[in-house]
Amino acid sequence: MQLFHTDRGNEFKNKLIDEVLETFKIKRSLSMKGCPYDNAVAEATFKIIKTEFIKGRNFDSLEQLKGELGDYIHWFNHTRIHGTLDYLIPIEYKERNLKKIV
Length: 102
Fold this sequence. Notes:
Blueprint: E1 3-6, H1 15-23, E2 27-30, H2 37-54, H3 62-78, H4 90-101
Parallel strand pairs: 1-2
């Protein structure tokens, strides 16, 4: 599934964007009303993908991009440590914090 994530700004409320999303079967994802923080997470994630994965690279096909992006996302979630997550990988951080909730 492909997503188009934005905040709720007026610049994203137009017929042309709606038509393009519908034509390419892309689902719209909006930040919650009055809560910009989820949009910040999406923007930070896309910045990391652009700087660590895409910058300076060319892909021969959409299939190559999809395959390598899938590998990168798996590495990002299962291998790459994150300073903002107490230097844990995201999966470990999630498991530790879920145990605290239950």
